[in-house]
Amino acid sequence: MEPVLGLREKPGSDVTLSRSARALVESIGRTPLLHLPSPDPRVEILGKAEWLNPGGSVKDRTAWSIVRDGLWAGGLAERSLLDASSGNTAIAYAMIGAAVGFEVTLCVPENASRERLQTLEAFGADIILTDPLEGTDGSILEARRLARASPDRYWHADQYSNPANWRAHYEGTALEIWQQSGIGITHFVAGLGTTGTLIGTGRRLRELESRVRIIAVEPLEALHGIEGLKNLDSALRPAIYDPAVADERIRISTEEAQSWARRLARESGLFVGTSSGAAYAACVRVAGRLEAGRIVTVLPDGGDRYLDERASRA
């Protein structure tokens, strides 16, 4: 399968990447689609193994799409990329910034996992910690404040409002899923965080197969422990979110998400993060009410970024 997130020279642009930087960004995407256990053998559940991206998560796709647009526009190289993130997009920005050669400033909740913060430091990012009680919403508001206060210093990537976010999945993730799963996909399931994965992938899959059902997954609680996901009724709603894309929203508790993530590790050898557990939990629910079908989901990251969390429960 051809890479879908390469630089793809834009007419009139003078973007030049080093050989090593180009090799890195062209390794983003093309992750395998794995068979997951299903409660009914007549219903397939398939999961996109996004922790196999070079930065360890699905957010590599988002970050590179946004950065690529910034390089094309010409305003990124002279300023520091600024954005808010709960962790995975921050790591992707920092990785790409180190490879391509631009500064990265990230607003991150203070309660982000130690593994995430250490990774950001390793890539040389400037980290601004925000109130943990305000979650990613607090980080978003701080990034907006900094962007307004110092427009000459910062290039505000704004993943929650930037259409390059969902286009990464419209152009890439959806087509990979379609090519890998073949004709017959009946349901697509994805978590709601920035909402880019669901919106971009859902839009494209529906164009390819009008009967596919798009199912959004969000935390049951307003205060929850599913890193990367949002309860949209209680949080700042991303500007890129389009409620018309999803046919259904399923809410998963933190405990249920953690339980299914542990089961995937212990019973299937797949060491995934809590948001992957939430997505899989929703797939199991959907499979339980079908007589036949093929459900595809995105497993956003691996469990290695949640080791502190797992140790605290031991």
Give a description of the structure.
This protein is of the alpha/beta class and 314 residues long. The chain has 2 domains: 27-53 and 169-313, Rossmann fold (3-Layer(aba) Sandwich), CATH 3.40.50.1100; 60-156, Rossmann fold, CATH 3.40.50. Helix content is 41%, strand content 17%. The chain is built from 10 helices and 10 strands. The strands form 2 sheets. It has a 6-stranded mixed β-sheet. It has a 4-stranded parallel β-sheet with strand order 5-4-3-6, with helices on both faces. Strand 1 and strand 2 form a beta hairpin. Helix 2 (59-73) crosses helix 6 (163-181). The longest helix is centred in the middle third of the chain and has 19 residues, at 163-181. It is globular. It starts with 18 loop residues before the first helix and ends with a helix. The mean pLDDT is 93.
Which residues form runs of ≥5 with pLDDT under 50? none
Q: Identify the strand order in the major beta sheet.
A: 1-2-10-7-8-9
Rg, Å, rounded: 18 Å
Distance between the termini: 41 Å
Number of helices: 10
Under CATH at level 1, the class of the largest domain stands as Alpha Beta
Helix content: 40-55%
Sum up the overall morphology in one term: globular
What number of structural domains do the residues give?
Answer: 2
Do you know the CATH topology of the largest domain? Rossmann fold
Quick one: biggest sheet?
Answer: 6 strands, mixed
* Mean of pLDDT: 93
Please name the CATH architecture of the largest domain. 3-Layer(aba) Sandwich
What structural category arises from helix and sheet content? alpha/beta
The helix-strand sequence is HEEHEHEHEHEHEHEEHHEH
Strand content: 15-25%
